């Protein structure tokens, strides 16, 4: 069982590490968009797409970088008591709190899947069966949701990124849970 846990941890940590290292460069994409926005407003006609595109890039940066941040332990913690605890006590506390986080991420993931299905023109109440139907050909994409701004981009790409980010965060939380279990068993992580 420990070998299976270690294999899962290794794969998930590797995927999230690589994704995080790639996504951290999105800050430069964001800076480029905002720089172009400033230049176009000053010297040319203002671009209508820059603000919304900057928001989309920031969402991707934040949500896809979250699992990497969690993996490195650089997430915000209340260190008043936690910093002084032993590794075993921290593992017990993390084991308890990660259960709440897994539930929360599950609810967010369900909402993201529902919202993405809606953005693809699905009006029903079973978003997972809609995506299964898309794969088998029994469902079709309807009228796609667009933003209400003047640029009017389709919303499904950013909502799909939200699904990916939440799924990777869920996997990283399970990886951290398994690491805590290994620590409590006294095995090296």
TrEMBL record:
The keyword Membrane applies. Keywords: Cell inner membrane, Cell membrane, Membrane, Transmembrane, Transmembrane helix, Transport. The keyword NADP does not apply. The chain crosses the membrane at residues 21-39, 51-70, 91-113, 154-174. One of its GO terms (cellular component) is plasma membrane. It is a multi-pass membrane protein. Residues 30-181 form the Tripartite ATP-independent periplasmic transporters DctQ component domain. Pfam families: DctQ (PF04290). GO terms for molecular function: transmembrane transporter activity. It is found in: Cell inner membrane. InterPro entries: DctQ (IPR055348), TRAP_DctQ (IPR007387). The complex comprises the extracytoplasmic solute receptor protein and the two transmembrane proteins. Belongs to the TRAP transporter small permease family. Part of the tripartite ATP-independent periplasmic (TRAP) transport system. This is TRAP transporter small permease protein. The lineage of its organism: Bacteria, Pseudomonadati, Pseudomonadota, Alphaproteobacteria, Rhodobacterales.
């Amino acid at each position: 069982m420990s070998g299976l846990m270690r294999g899962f941890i290794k794969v998930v940590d590797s995927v999230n590490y690589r994704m995080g290292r790639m996504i951290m460069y999105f800050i430069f994409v964001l800076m480029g968009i905002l720089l172009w926005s400033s230049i176009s407003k000053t010297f040319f006609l203002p671009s209508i797409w820059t603000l919304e595109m900057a928001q989309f890039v920031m969402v991707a940066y934040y949500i896809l970088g979250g699992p990497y941040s969690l993996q490195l332990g650089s997430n915000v913690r209340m260190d008043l008591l936690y910093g002084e605890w032993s590794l075993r006590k921290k593992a017990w506390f993390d084991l308890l709190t990660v259960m709440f986080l897994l539930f929360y991420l599950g609810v967010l993931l369900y909402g993201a899947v529902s919202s993405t299905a809606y953005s693809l023109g699905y009006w029903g109440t079973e978003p997972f069966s809609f995506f299964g139907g898309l794969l088998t050909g029994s469902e079709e994409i309807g009228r796609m949701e667009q933003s209400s701004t003047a640029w009017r981009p389709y919303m499904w790409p950013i909502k799909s990124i939200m699904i990916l980010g939440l799924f990777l965060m869920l996997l990283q939380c399970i990886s951290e849970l398994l690491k805590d279990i290994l620590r409590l068993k006294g095995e090296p992580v």
